[in-house]
Amino acid sequence: MPWRPPRTKHATPLTPSGGLDDAERRALAAMLDDPRRALRAEALARFGVARSTARDALERLRQAGHLELDAERRAFVVDPLLERWIQAGREELR
Q: Out of 14-18, 50-54, 56-60, which region has the weakest mean confidence (pLDDT)?
């Protein structure tokens, strides 16, 4: 998916002291496993996160400006570097 600027004015910055928590990283990894079918049971099990925990974590990320919803209400990561960071670290989360 091509990069699109966020609709929000500012996303909450991710810093070493204020980065993603474990549930947020795992939920993003599960979502990125197959963005068309976010939060499917197989991906959630593979990354060790419950559906309700993942849903709450993704909502926090959306509210912080790190995720947006497309016209079909599918979530996508706003920052391509964050997406690459999550994808690169997915193996560690399994």
A: 14-18
| Structural domains of the chain, with CATH | 22-93 (1.10.10.10)
Nearest to 38 by CA among 85, 72, 88, 84: 72
Tokens 């979530």 appear where? 75
- Which residues on neighbouring strands pair with residue 71, listed in sequence order? none
Residue 79 gets which letter from DSSP? Answer: -
Distances from the Cα of 55 to the Cαs of 26, 42, 45, 73, 75, in angstroms?
Answer: 11, 15, 14, 14, 11
